[in-house]
Structures are given as structure tokens and as C-alpha cells.
């Protein structure tokens, strides 16, 4: 298994000591591997969210190009948004 040396802040080092003392991990390497797995999962989830956002943007742009939108006067904007929020919460 490859070995790497990493520098930790005093707070990070203390945290690792804490989880080791609690018996959550057998050693610091195990704790670090778990932290890296969590980072990988978070990044994968963020990537999926970005993909979903890009698809939503594309759908919105396509709807605009088809003329599927409502024009709202500035004076009516608050009421329009309130109605929109009420209809999506049902």
C-alpha cells in the first residue's frame, strides 16, 4: 500500500487522537482513509448536483426560446413569487 506523509493542523491532529481514543478507528491511517472516502463521496454528490443544475438551466433556456414564460411587472413581482411558492409547496 502506498505511503504518504501529510501535514495536519494541531486541531486536525487532536481530532484524530480523539477518534482513536474513542475506539472509532484502530489507527490514524484508517481514520484518514475514511476521511478520503467521505471527500470522494462529497465530490461525487456535488458533481451530480452540478449535472442536474446544468440540465435545469438547459431546460429553462429551451423554454425561453420556445416563448414559454410569463412576463411580470415589477409591481406584481412579489405577488407572483408568493403564488409560485404557494403552488410548489402543495
TrEMBL record:
Kindly list the biological process annotations in GO that this record carries: regulation of DNA-templated transcription
Keyword RNA-binding part of the UniProt annotation: no
- Keyword list, A-Z: Toxin-antitoxin system
Which Pfam families is this protein grouped with? Answer: ParD_antitoxin
**Which SUPFAM superfamilies does the entry link to?**
Ribbon-helix-helix (SSF47598)
- Which domain of life does the UniProt lineage start with? Bacteria
Into which family does the record put it?
Answer: Belongs to the ParD antitoxin family.
Q: What is this protein called?
A: Addiction module antidote protein, CC2985 family
Amino acid at each position: 500500500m502506498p505511503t504518504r506523509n501529510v501535514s495536519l493542523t494541531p486541531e486536525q491532529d487532536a481530532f484524530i487522537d480523539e477518534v482513536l481514543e474513542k475506539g472509532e478507528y484502530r489507527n490514524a491511517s484508517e481514520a484518514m482513509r475514511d476521511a478520503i472516502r467521505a471527500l470522494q463521496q462529497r465530490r461525487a454528490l456535488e458533481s451530480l448536483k452540478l449535472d442536474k443544475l446544468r440540465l435545469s438551466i438547459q431546460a429553462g433556456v429551451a423554454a425561453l426560446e420556445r416563448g414559454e414564460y410569463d412576463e411580470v411587472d415589477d409591481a406584481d413581482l412579489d405577488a407572483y413569487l408568493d403564488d409560485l411558492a404557494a403552488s410548489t409547496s402543495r
